[in-house]
Amino acid sequence: MWRLPNLCSLPQTRGKSRGVTFAKVQANGKILVSIPDGHWGTDGDESSRLATLIGTLVRMHAPFGTPTWAKVSNSVKEYIKEHVLEDRETMNSIMNAAFKNHKAKLHKHFKKFGSKDEALEHQPADTSVENRIACCELFSQPSHQVHHTGGSRPFVWHRKKLQDFEVGTPTAADLYSKMHHKKNGEGWVTDVARENYEKMVEIQSQSTTKSGALKDIDIFTQVLGKDLVM
Fold first, then answer.
1. 213 falls within a domain
2. Residue 146 domain-assigned?
3. In the chain, fewer beta carbons within 10 Å around the N or the C end?
4. pTM, rounded to two decimals
5. Chain Cα centroid distance, residue 123
6. Is the same domain home to 13 and 92?
7. 185-226 pLDDT, tens digit each
8. Residues 166 and 225 in one domain
9. Could you report the per-residue pLDDT of 42-68, keeping only the tens digit for each?
């Protein structure tokens, strides 16, 4: 269960969602969100209101020029947690997802332009000048040349949609493949994405023949690195 914040403390602005629908939840001020066993993310549509609130707080307070959520200062994380928190471990994971989702939107906007300087001149109005400069510097780096096509939905949601009654839960490689193929069916988003997939398949086959299958998070970490996974 989640404690909802005092919505009056949030800035009253127009445009993007600011969590207003939370005022209409149960009178006890809590909303039930299902977390599958073994996962830190939600897989049901009932989580959308919570995700909206967390996403709003992350957009308002997180420094998006920071490489990953793990490197965001604890003071920022604690400020956001104080507004919603009851389960700290799950809460941190959801904030992580909100951070990644909004950064992905900023990255998508950045890629519309031919140069860093041009992108700086056309940054979203709801992004601070400091974040605009830092994000453009970050997105210009080689490590940001691979992107997925799953939109703002968390990977655990896509995993559930890919489940098959006969085949079962998709593997880490299957999920990565689905999320890194072009939506028009014309192949991988980049050659690097294809190479990452091939490495995952190899790791999966080796782990199956040795001491049992590795967890997906371990495979992702081996191939992509801890910073990109976390």
1. yes
2. no
3. N
4. 0.40
5. 21
6. yes
7. 788 887 888 888 898 888 888 876 555 667 777 887 888 776
8. yes
9. 555 446 667 777 888 899 899 999 989
Shared domain check, 20 and 95: yes
Give 26-83 as a DSSP string: -TTSEE-----TT-SS--SGGGHHHHHHHHHHHHHH--TTSSSGGGS-HHHHHHHHHH
In residues, how long is the chain? 230
* Domain's final residue, options 105, 140, 172: 105
Q: Is residue 53 part of a domain?
A: yes
How many domains is the chain built from? 2
Does residue 98 sit in the same domain as residue 159? no
The DSSP H or E segment spanning 204 is: helix 191-209
Long-range contacts of 51-55 (CB under 8 A, 24+ apart): 51/94, 51/97, 51/98, 52/17, 52/19, 52/21, 52/22, 53/4, 53/5, 53/19, 53/22, 53/83, 53/84, 54/80, 54/84, 54/91, 54/94, 54/95, 54/98, 55/17, 55/98, 55/101, 55/102
pLDDT digits (tens, 9 = 90+) for 89-120: 666 777 788 888 888 888 888 888 877 888 88
| Domain assignment of residue 75, given as a range | 2-105
- Separation of alpha carbons 123 and 65, rounded Å: 13
Assess whether 72 and 166 both reside in one domain: no
Nearest to 55 by CA among 96, 26, 1, 14: 96
State which H helix or E strand residue 24 sits in: none
**Cα–Cα distance measured from residue 38 to residue 54, given in angstroms and rounded to the nearest whole number:** 22
**Which is more confident, 200 or 126?**
200
